[in-house]
Amino acid sequence: MPPLPPTIALLTDFGLADWYVAAVKGRILTALPEARLVDISHGVPACNVEAGAFLLRCVLDAMPPATLFCCVVDPGVGATRRAVCGRIGPWGYSGPDNGLATPLFEKAGDDFALYEIASPGFRAPQVSDTFHGRDLFAPAAARLAAGADPAAAGPAVTDPVILPPLDPEELSHGLLARVMLVDHFGNLVTNIARPDWEARLARRRFVIRAGPLRLTAINRTFAQAREVEALAYWGSAGMLEVAVNRGSAAESTGLRAGDSIHVDWVE
Amino acid sequence: MPPLPPTIALLTDFGLADWYVAAVKGRILTALPEARLVDISHGVPACNVEAGAFLLRCVLDAMPPATLFCCVVDPGVGATRRAVCGRIGPWGYSGPDNGLATPLFEKAGDDFALYEIASPGFRAPQVSDTFHGRDLFAPAAARLAAGADPAAAGPAVTDPVILPPLDPEELSHGLLARVMLVDHFGNLVTNIARPDWEARLARRRFVIRAGPLRLTAINRTFAQAREVEALAYWGSAGMLEVAVNRGSAAESTGLRAGDSIHVDWVE
Amino acid sequence: MPPLPPTIALLTDFGLADWYVAAVKGRILTALPEARLVDISHGVPACNVEAGAFLLRCVLDAMPPATLFCCVVDPGVGATRRAVCGRIGPWGYSGPDNGLATPLFEKAGDDFALYEIASPGFRAPQVSDTFHGRDLFAPAAARLAAGADPAAAGPAVTDPVILPPLDPEELSHGLLARVMLVDHFGNLVTNIARPDWEARLARRRFVIRAGPLRLTAINRTFAQAREVEALAYWGSAGMLEVAVNRGSAAESTGLRAGDSIHVDWVE
């Protein structure tokens, strides 16, 4: 039996009510009927490349090893940003060259081979000016999933756009962090990454200020908090999160994506 | 290896929170475990057949050639409207005979072979009075996808319900058009089709009136508009659209699906 | 050809905007690339185990015979509730032991073989304290779908948590029932089950009181009601429902999930 084609994972800001996601899937299935598709999310805030990249970062470790990411958060469609496809580390990528793939580059470093989507076989016969997800990224993803050499897609891209690191700002008296994502449960996911900060936060006393909330410890589980009590914990995305047990930290704090969260050192 | 069964594409007004979509998929997978399902949308406004047909029209060209459309926007369930399945042009269809398949008929003309879903093999052993998606359209779609002859489903349907054309009304001084769809980005998709109107609009001066907006040109890309500027363009569905670059035309205009948009000839 | 693995049906309260559903799917596909996934719903009200169990009850008969249900409505994650997998009647189950699987137990009775998810092969190498869907239930589901013996997962669970029956309360003058679910169409799905109550309701006169609505008959189809008229009927989930034809009973009554509906005997 031939090997299964790689999982194609879709991440867009298209929402689910319209026909846009289906058009991307339809074009992939037209070119590769045996394609295996999985949705990451189509709920990225419209045109918010950084938010899309953050979702990709969160889910990356849980996806199959050679997943091909077909991503469309693309405010620059029709302008000068490049449309690219190829390999970034162990993963495939088809999407705009606008920073959306940053989490892949963060893990892959210089180990990538990306190409502009220019050759006829990698794009629809007619390419619209407003929907490259359907006309460029889907056909290119199907070609890659079918085993095509991405170098056939077009000119090599050696200087892809990569977003700046997420790290919180280090101040003399603490950290200035940000809410990256308010999730479905109202949990506030920050840009304080566990690998970078767990040891440092364990070593000293601090107060986390999130809106009106003040938290002085990092819990292990929700069950350690009483009902409707606030807590901070290392979340499943590997970031520090602020939540209210069986409540909504977003409601309790009034904070939204992009807002500041402070960590003040005590003493 | 046997050939892959056709893609079964689902279009409903069920929303995604309940168990209805899963019941349709479950019944298809019960009858045909190797079925390949793809969602078009489950966000059609409740009971709005015309809106469902418009979504189908938008996505049609992007779907695989022999896609079998299993569609359930069905305000007449349990009444006298017929439940049908069969072939319309190159496509399969299983759903109500209420105009939902109009875009298929528009392309296929008289080339269709539709049958009422009446035979035991094409329907659930027990058919409810309120959920034909689960009890008729899903089993029939599975049978068709498995290669069954649709003529075995029941009596031939030679006079299917087809909705009137979408065309805008031609007035002496311009066009009276309609908003067919407000998409996720707040773009207003009209019933002015590119094949019919592009040449005519290119030949004369006009003012597009959409709520308080006045537009005198058709842009090629969003990038040609400044941020938060309104523009008209031929959208990815092949229709004239009105948008606000990085904003929402729906919010700027207050217009909703069904509202009027005017094109006034100048001179 | 090897047999197809069972359908894995997912039911969660994760919503669709975040990366949580994708992480569960990604982990399943990592372990079992040929897995066949289908979504029941990810719109269960957050942490509402009873609402999740009710959705499962509604969809159960429509799912393929040996479906493996991977369910995550899990307010007790990280606390003492057990994580279990195995067989309940003809179905597979992977999820929390918190009552979510009650509809499976109601049909299977004592015919189940459940085990705690404890062995390395059934869980992720690193198990977080907040996301057992990704770290326990998905890997266990993939193992079961691959044909593993669930007894290898861990200690047997002989006393699973089962929710109390849904039945309405019988009063001397009628029934005190509940709204279990307000669906996408605004229909009120009650806990009055057709097998238990159809004959009894057919035998006597009654008034159904749902907010300000008064209904004295049970209709067969929506088409029997005039437009914007209220009706009661045996719904597709096998429960008594109250709806407004082409309207919303939720809006007309102001009732929400958990609210009371009364059936008063006349005479």
How does the SSE layout of this entry go?
Three copies of one chain form a homotrimer.
Chain A: E1 7-12, H1 20-31, E2 36-41, H2 49-59, E3 68-72, E4 83-88, E5 91-96, H3 102-108, E6 112-116, H4 132-145, E7 156-157, E8 169-171, E9 174-182, E10 188-193, H5 194-203, E11 206-210, E12 213-215, E13 230-234, E14 239-244, H6 249-253, E15 260-265
Parallel strand pairs in A: 1-2, 1-3, 3-5
Antiparallel strand pairs in A: 4-5, 4-6, 6-7, 8-9, 9-10, 9-15, 10-14, 11-12, 11-15, 13-14
Helix pairs in contact in A: 1-4
SSE pattern of chain A: EHEHEEEHEHEEEEHEEEEHE
Q: Percent helix among the residues of chain A?
A: 10-25%
| N-C termini distance of chain A | 65 Å
User: How much of the sequence of chain A is in beta strands?
Assistant: 25-35%
Number of helices of chain A: 6
Notes on the structure:
The structure is a homotrimer of 267-residue chains. In chain A, the strands form two sheets. In chain A, strands 8, 9, 10, 11, 12, 13, 14 and 15 form an eight-stranded antiparallel beta sheet that branches. In chain A, strands 2-1-3-5-4-6-7 form a seven-stranded mixed beta sheet, with helices on both faces. The mean pLDDT of chain A is 95. Chain A has helices at 20-31, 49-59, 102-108, 132-145, 194-203, 249-253, and strands at residues 7-12, 36-41, 68-72, 83-88, 91-96, 112-116, 156-157, 169-171, 174-182, 188-193, 206-210, 213-215, 230-234, 239-244, 260-265. Chain A is elongated, with a radius of gyration of 20 Å. The first copy, chain A, has six helices and 15 strands. Chain A has two domains: 7-157, S-adenosyl-l-methionine hydroxide adenosyltransferase, N-terminal (Rossmann fold), CATH 3.40.50.10790; 169-266, Bacterial fluorinating enzyme like (Elongation Factor Tu (Ef-tu), domain 3, Beta Barrel). Chain A is α+β, with helices and mostly antiparallel strands. Chain A binds chain B through residues 13-27, 29-30, 33-34, 37, 46-47, 75-80, 128-131, 134, and chain B through 4, 7, 9, 16, 36, 38-43, 55, 58-59, 62-65, 67, 181, 183-185, 220-224, 233, 235-237, 246.
